[in-house]
Amino acid sequence: MEDSNGAEIKAPPPVQRRPPRPRGGGFTPEGFVAALRRRLSSGAAVAARASFAADSGDESGPPEPSSSHSRRDSSGDTSSAGGPGDFTAFSFRAAAPVHRKAKESPLSSDAIFKQSHAGLFNLCIVVLVAVNGRLIIENLMKYGLLIRAGFWFNSTSLRDWPLLMCCLSLPAFPLGAFSVEQLAFRNVITDAVATCLHIILTTAEIVYPVLVILMCDSAVVSGFLLMFIACIVWLKLVSFAHTNHDIRQLTISGKKVDNAPSTDDMDSLQAPTLGSLVYFMMAPTLCYQPSYPRTENVRKGWLIRQIILYLIFTGIQGFIIEQYINPIVVNSQHPLKGGLLNAIETVLRLSLPNVYLWLCMFYCFFHLWLNILAEILRFGDREFYKDWWNAKTIDEYWRKWNMPVHKWIVRHIYFPCMRSGISKEVAVFVSFFVSAVLHELVVAVPCRILKFWAFLGIMLQIPLITLTSCLKNKFRDTMAGNMIFWFFFCIYGQPMCVLLYYHDVMNRIGKTE
């Protein structure tokens, strides 16, 4: 065929149409066998054979088909009927052994830590959500919504104004400590006189709020906040006095040390200034030093997000206390006076909301609040906590849970005791003793009772440290100590302390009325 220009036009190739599929009685076994062989030679069959070989213990299995095996000839069949394109290999025969080597069950002690448990972890999350959802619904059906608008502040809160005045007057003690240091660095007073004046100031700073709380009919929460702030100021005053005393010994007295300090360390050995004192009293740290690492700027967007989260988690804490903890505690009996089973049931019922409250408190204070302060003040060192939730011993927990207090105790109690020739065991005992006294002050003074529950709770950590350390040494790479930590802190210890202090406070109020 030619076009108008005389060029030859090639005819289009003929269209190859698939022959119609036979219907009814047109079924042929030969066509079915050919289709089955094509399906067996596909990737799905290869994956099935590999899975069967792995499950049967034959890790070598039949060889993977090469490209030559998967090619089809002109007739559409595979190149070899007995090759790996079908299930005629020996590995798929009944005579092939299924059990080829010794294997452990997945949950046996030798194999349980060699595999992933993500599915079980997801199951725990689902069960946790379901169980807690049921408890929330049950609580709402039984008590209704208990949170009130006047939970945080009401008309009776105005009677706590003496505590507010006491809190606002606490900065007078750091100013007094600063005056003492100025006189000491100018050699107006001796180092011994400066130490005596610091002892008087720190003692007065902790006694003053105690007297105010005991003399005023204030709420327990208000007294707790005042004692908490007073203890923080006391720790800062001790660090301020101790650090400047050591600086005077190194700079003025020329006291020798074993390892020579670096140039940067020597530059930081300076007399305190009013600016350094004010920054230290506001900074999220308990250890004084003339200068701190600083960040370059304040991230305003990040800061606003943290403040919003802080307000949300503060509200969640109030909701947990009012909606869940208060009804359980009010309707309970004294754990040491009722029946044993009743006490165990109450402690276990209180343990769940107590765990949530404790975790919210940790996140709200140690992460959100301290980071908010650090961001505003551009404070650089923000290691306020470590991975205490993975602690395998009680000792490891106390070294990771509250880093500001841990650094303070190590710097101002533990190391001075060790330098004085005191044994390590006695130094640990002294450290826990100071911590126990402060915990007792924070709790017992606002409650106006002296039962030493908080003191004993801290001192009993010493035998628990020994117990968990022995378990760690005996059962290496296990989490037995971590389980003991979670049990004594969240399941038994804190709920028991809450019940003890609540009923003792209620008994005191009942006797006064």
From TrEMBL:
Task: Tell me the InterPro entries matching this sequence.
Answer: Diacylglycerol_acylTrfase1, MBOAT_fam, Oat_ACAT_DAG_ARE
Which keywords fit this entry according to its UniProt record? Acyltransferase, Endoplasmic reticulum, Membrane, Transferase, Transmembrane, Transmembrane helix
Q: Where in the cell is it found?
A: Endoplasmic reticulum membrane
Membrane topology, from the record: Multi-pass membrane protein
Q: Which residues form the active site?
A: H439
Q: In which pathway does it act?
A: Lipid metabolism; Glycerolipid metabolism; triacylglycerol biosynthesis
Which positions, given as ranges, span the membrane?
118-137, 161-180, 192-214, 220-238, 307-325, 355-377, 426-446, 452-471, 483-503
Keyword Transmembrane present in the record's keywords: the answer is: yes
Organism domain of life:
Eukaryota
Pfam families (UniProt xref): MBOAT
Q: Which GO terms describe its molecular function?
A: diacylglycerol O-acyltransferase activity
One GO cellular component from the entry?
A: chloroplast envelope
| Location of the region described as Disordered in the Swiss-Prot/TrEMBL record | 1-31, 51-84
Main localisation, per the record? endoplasmic reticulum
- Tell me the GO BP annotations in alphabetical order: triglyceride biosynthetic process
Please report the name of this protein according to its UniProt entry. O-acyltransferase
Q: Which organism is it from?
A: Triticum aestivum (Wheat)
